[in-house]
């Protein structure tokens, strides 16, 4: 697998993924607030059965439009980050590293297919968008590649 | 397909040859322009090098490929 980018693009890719995680968290902040509030209300009711919520909480801190934009931007950063990581060179590029890349690519593809197929068979009505499947495969590639490079074939 | 790295088990005397030449893994890696990880993987039998790499290794040790790498009986059945 050809790699075109210098080594430091790997760090840029990782930074992009972190940005994607932060943006994704912000985009889903409404759900975070809702979940926290529902959980705390349930806990308070368990302690005191007569507990009544005084004021209703506004769960819509992030508007639907902003959420959609942030999700799209987060996905873009995530894709860009993983692709930059995938196509950036190692400090020393040799045939062994190339073999590890090919193996990681093949395994990540296979595992993604297996999991996606299993999910669709188990839950026929599940709507899996292509973007998320691709993102999962890219993430899996990074995990498997690093497993091979840093753990399985680690230098003693 | 998923085990491209270790289809065959090829014995090698890399460690012995390195000791004869007083080379560390890092030294040998630098001479043939690969990573130290590659040398370690070859020595531990986890990776079978390409013909080009095997020729380079033999050249560094001033010997033939057959002196460094040896096919095992089990390789003939694959």
Describe this structure in words.
The complex is a heterodimer of chains A (156) and B (78). Chain A has 156 residues and is mainly alpha-helical. Helices cover 72% and strands 0% of the residues of chain A. Chain A contains five helices and no strands. In chain A, helix 1 (9-27) runs antiparallel to helix 3, helix 3 runs parallel beside helix 5 and helix 4 packs across helix 5 (130-152). The model of chain A has no long low-confidence stretch (mean pLDDT 85). Chain B has 78 residues and is mainly alpha-helical. Helix content of chain B is 47%, strand content 8%. Chain B has helices at residues 14-21, 25-31, 36-43, 51-60, 65-68, and strands spanning 10-12, 69-71. Chain B has a two-stranded antiparallel sheet. The radius of gyration of chain B is 12 Å and the shape is globular. Chains A and B meet through helix 4 of A and helix 3 of B. Chain B: InterPro entries: Cro/C1-type_HTH, Lambda_DNA-bd_dom_sf. Chain B: Keywords: DNA-binding. Chain B: Residues 14-68 form the HTH cro/C1-type domain. Chain B: This is Transcriptional regulator.
Briefly, what is this?
Chain A is mainly α and 156 residues long. Chain A contains five helices and no strands. The chains are: A mainly alpha (156), B mainly alpha (78).
Count interface residues per chain for the largest interface.
A-B, 19 and 20 residues
Quickly give the CATH architecture of chain B.
Answer: Orthogonal Bundle
- By secondary-structure content and strand pairing, the structural class of chain A works out as mainly alpha
Number of helices of chain B: 5
Strand content of chain A: under 5%
Compute the separation of the termini of chain A in Å.
27 Å
Mean pLDDT of chain B: 84
Counting copies of identical and different chains, the oligomeric state is heterodimer
| Element pattern of chain B in H and E | EHHHHHE
The rough form of chain B would be described as globular
The biggest beta sheet of chain A, please?
A: none
Number of strands of chain A: 0
Helix content of chain A: over 70%
Number of domains of chain A: 2
Radius of gyration of chain B: 12 Å
- Count of DSSP E strands of chain B? 2
Compute the separation of the termini of chain B in Å. 14 Å
CATH class wording of chain B: Mainly Alpha
InterPro entries (chain B): Cro/C1-type_HTH, Lambda_DNA-bd_dom_sf
Protein name (chain B): Transcriptional regulator
GO molecular function (chain B): DNA binding
Organism (chain B): Prolixibacter denitrificans
């Amino acid at each position: 697998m050809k790699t075109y980018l210098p080594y430091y693009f790997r760090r840029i890719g990782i930074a992009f993924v972190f940005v994607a995680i932060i943006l994704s968290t912000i985009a889903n902040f409404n759900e975070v607030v809702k979940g926290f509030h529902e959980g705390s209300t349930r806990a308070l009711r368990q302690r005191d059965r007569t507990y009544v919520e005084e004021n209703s909480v506004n769960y819509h801190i992030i508007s639907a439009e902003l959420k959609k934009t942030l999700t799209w931007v987060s996905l873009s950063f995530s894709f860009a980050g993983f692709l930059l990581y995938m196509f950036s060179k190692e400090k020393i590029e040799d045939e062994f590293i190339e073999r590890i890349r090919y193996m990681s690519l093949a395994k990540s593809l296979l595992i993604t297919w297996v999991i996606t197929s299993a999910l669709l068979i188990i839950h026929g009505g599940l709507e899996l968008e292509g973007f998320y499947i691709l993102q999962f495969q890219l993430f899996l590639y990074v995990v498997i590649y690093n497993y091979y490079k840093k753990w399985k074939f680690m230098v003693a | 397909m998923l085990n491209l790295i270790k289809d065959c088990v090829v014995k090698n005397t890399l460690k012995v040859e390195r000791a004869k030449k007083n080379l560390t893994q890092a030294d040998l890696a630098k001479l043939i322009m690969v990573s130290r990880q590659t040398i370690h993987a070859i020595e531990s039998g986890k990776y079978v090098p390409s013909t080009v790499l095997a020729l380079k290794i033999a050249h560094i040790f001033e010997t033939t490929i057959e002196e460094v790498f040896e096919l095992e009986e089990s390789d003939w059945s694959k």
